[in-house]
Amino acid sequence: MEVIKETAEMQALAAELIKEGKSIGFVPTMGYLHEGHLSLLQQARQQNDKVILSIFVNPLQFGPDEDLDAYPRDEQRDLTIAEENGVDIVFLPVEETMYPHPLSLKLSVVNRADVLCGRSRPGHFDGVVTILAKLFNLCRPDRVYFGMKDAQQVAVVDALIEDFNFPVELKSVSTVREKDGLAKSSRNVNLSALEREEAPFIQQALQKGRMLAEEGENDIDVIVKETMKFIESKTHGKIDYVELLSYPELEPVDKIDRQVILAAAVQFQHARLIDNVVFDETGAISKG
Amino acid sequence: MEVIKETAEMQALAAELIKEGKSIGFVPTMGYLHEGHLSLLQQARQQNDKVILSIFVNPLQFGPDEDLDAYPRDEQRDLTIAEENGVDIVFLPVEETMYPHPLSLKLSVVNRADVLCGRSRPGHFDGVVTILAKLFNLCRPDRVYFGMKDAQQVAVVDALIEDFNFPVELKSVSTVREKDGLAKSSRNVNLSALEREEAPFIQQALQKGRMLAEEGENDIDVIVKETMKFIESKTHGKIDYVELLSYPELEPVDKIDRQVILAAAVQFQHARLIDNVVFDETGAISKG
């Protein structure tokens, strides 16, 4: 496994791989790898000749009130995990390498950003697409892998690739779940014992909402309200949002006549959990 | 010579060329080719295995008061010229192909745009970098060619490539001039006979300004004022601007201690002419 820190070196190696006809699978991360990342790496490993993992805690996607310095880091552990999971190249730049001087251009997300988690994190997705545009040009992947747990991120990356014709195929990977249905997350350890028992009801509530659509319910408000009611009745968490939007456009819908996402964010005492389900006009799960 | 209209086909062909180890030189244009373009094609031909010419009148870089429909077009003539000048591939998309739906992201130029010609064309360079990002991803060039006549455009493209790590080398090509020094431009035909005689004094004025620097003059205001005075005394044109800025950063400078541009725009009765000279701290011409 090669560990690369410089942009020029990364770009040169990617160019070499492309000329050799190797397909490149790319998993961009902020490190502190967990099982969600492993499922991305696994799929990248299956579908490509070479797997590039990037580890970079991107300051541009942190808001002024978000603690960049407190973001967990464990480089040695990450490298061990990468090696064990068949990564060929780890791209591990420092901030000065990725942002050597202030940017002259600004890339902003004008649609798909101001809903769901994006509403409370203004500028977050601008930072995400900026670093991804840079990483795409440095690592030049054929396929890039993201988890459907962050469905909004997948939608925004879809727009990035589509709007700017990046020669990259977006692969969204199903959310990894505990046996009881709770989406795996590094935040789950911050749940109390009781909260941990309640947390799986978020996914159950979303499935209940989806099933209403499957049974023919076409009133968005009813579906959202029933989903909220279920979460409220089964957990002590405070609902941040439950939203039903078109997917991946993330626009409000009057009725379910296309692919939609039903997504929730619930604040527990020391952990904010998010989850979602994506389904089509028949109510059948289509992603995630 | 191949003529390609679809984005997917262009992207597939570029990928094929890259895998074959062919270097790609790219000349993006809005068509209506003139001698300036030919010098770009010529250099691209010399330095690359394959030359791609794109012809696309990009609506995004026209302001609301600028007449997109009146922009001159002559596809058949352009294709003949392309063929005669050794172009391998012409990429000739229509608007619906390049912008099939409204963009979800917005790319803006925050530095380098609000000076020189950019000041009177708000949003113009946003449109330029957006279409270029798309074209870079579709044509995937090793080298891209722009004329130094539009020095601000070169500076903005430099920022695009630098900020987003596009794997493209920017080649700026010297302005093609008439024997008397007038920069060649399709707008020159709109000059009256007298104006045509006066127009070469723009470049002479810029060179005079540069020579002041060469002789040790370090007061920016003096250089700009002398340049303006010379243009005013020698032509009937109305000066739109004469500016001296760092290059390619296009920032104001206190003194000439790095590479700078001295640029002018002069409005004649039916033609607005621009020209520039780029020189280093010794006053020696370094570009253009």
Write the layout of secondary structure elements.
The structure is a homodimer of 288-residue chains.
Chain A: E1 2-4, H1 7-19, E2 24-29, H2 35-47, E3 50-55, H3 75-84, E4 89-91, H4 95-98, E5 105-109, H5 124-139, E6 143-147, H6 151-164, E7 169-173, H7 193-198, H8 200-214, H9 220-234, E8 238-246, E9 260-267, E10 272-279, E11 285-287
Parallel strand pairs in A: 1-4, 2-3, 2-6, 3-4, 6-7
Antiparallel strand pairs in A: 8-9, 9-10, 10-11
What does this protein look like?
The structure is a homodimer of 288-residue chains. The first copy, chain A, is α/β, with parallel strands linked by helices. Chain A folds into two domains: 2-173, Rossmann fold; 186-287, 2-Layer Sandwich (Pantoate--beta-alanine Ligase, Chain: A,domain 2). Helix content of chain A is 37%, strand content 21%. The first copy, chain A, has helices at 7-19, 35-47, 75-84, 95-98, 124-139, 151-164, 193-198, 200-214, 220-234, and strands at residues 2-4, 24-29, 50-55, 89-91, 105-109, 143-147, 169-173, 238-246, 260-267, 272-279, 285-287. In chain A, the strands form two sheets. In chain A, strands 1-4-3-2-6-7 form a six-stranded parallel beta sheet, sandwiched between helices. Chain A has a four-stranded antiparallel beta sheet with strand order 8-9-10-11, with helices on one face. In chain A, helix 5 (124-139) packs across helix 6 and helix 8 (200-214) runs antiparallel to helix 9. The first copy, chain A, is globular and about 55 Å long. Chain A binds chain B through residues 7, 11, 14-15, 18-19, 21, 102-112, 129-130, 133-134, 137-138, 140, 156, 159-160, 162-167, and chain B through 7, 11, 14-15, 18-19, 21, 102-112, 129-130, 133-134, 137-138, 140, 156, 159-160, 162-167.
